[in-house]
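ugh ok so i messed up the first submission bc i forgot one of the chains. this is the corrected input, ALL of the components this time, i swear. 432 residues overall. if the numbers dont match what u have on ur side tell me asap before i send this to the collaborators (the ones from the other lab, u know who)
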Amino acid sequence: MIPVITALRWVPPFAQGYVRDHRVRWALEETGRPYRVELVDHAILDSRDYRSWQPFGHVPAYRDGEVELFESGAIVLHIARTSEMLAPVDPAGFARVSAWVIAALNSVEPFVRNVIAIDDFHASEPWAQSYRPIAEAELRRRLAALQDRLADRDFLEDRFSAGDLMMSTVLRDIEASGLLRDYPAVSAFLTRCESRLAFQRAIAAQIEDFRNNAPA
Amino acid sequence: MIPVITALRWVPPFAQGYVRDHRVRWALEETGRPYRVELVDHAILDSRDYRSWQPFGHVPAYRDGEVELFESGAIVLHIARTSEMLAPVDPAGFARVSAWVIAALNSVEPFVRNVIAIDDFHASEPWAQSYRPIAEAELRRRLAALQDRLADRDFLEDRFSAGDLMMSTVLRDIEASGLLRDYPAVSAFLTRCESRLAFQRAIAAQIEDFRNNAPA
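and heres the new structure output, hopefully the right one now
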């Protein structure tokens, strides 16, 4: 059975290329496996049926002949388990990749999210102006750790893996903020990941779906 | 080789029993495996050596005869791969458990963390009073999803797993806030997890280490 993923029917231009199904499309593109997309809207996201598949009402959800899954990180790890393109097959190497996938999602993304939530949605509110330096300082501590890690290597481990895939999709969200200029090895790492053909094919596929479903 | 984990040498009483090495101790207690603790302080956390083990300078880090790891979620999944106590052995069942571990860390914990950061560290600051309702609303959306999920089951899947372990450790952090009163199935789930002997042994072990190293 061809894997099925869910994606949003349409989002405004600033979010196109950044919705999280991109992570799963990218992982599948790295492995060369075809997949099918099921487009969803807000009514579907809130439905009982969809919630029994994705309990939080988000995208992506995923299904193949073996398993039904949610959480982009878990889906990418599941795909990685079936392809050496995304992780070493030995259990120790695979565990290291899992550590970086989870580091992206728990040690970096929450702090990215706090900064971009302010910049994108609350920039003019007085409370956000007071909170912004605190949120930025928290994020900078994590970026500095990544800068140290990446100072003398191309990828987080000794080869491209699902860990780099997840970390780079998290870092993309603050590309426009200019913050990465202070972390040149992180910035170079991001460029390295974004230059992969599979990354670009996944972006193009997501944007193509939005183009085909643009509101009148 | 007996697994080794790192833990903080001492923290103030309000944090005792809540430091993240508890998650790994709990997982190991569920499997019945002995482990050794390496206590660390801030000088060690910032050292080059420790950072090459745990890039963000946090606890826990983990090592066994097979692998060196960081990120509590990745460590718990690694332990779960070697014991049916924490996850089914079939790949599909294991992937479902991974989804819940990652949901705890990415779909719930960041919103818990924002609320408790306000309550514990910024409660009296005017910006925090404006931000608190926004952060609480974000968290409540996730708690409502968990309430739906747990309304008719004891655990997130059909048996206790590493997913329940991670989710309950995340939820514990807001127990004192009173928020869980509005989500009775979540609250009952938390009590169910906390009543496990392995949970309690892990708490006792963490607190015992603090007691043995209390500042003069």
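quick check: The mean pLDDT of chain A is 97. that seems consistent at least. Chain A touches chain B through 47 residues (CB under 8 Å).
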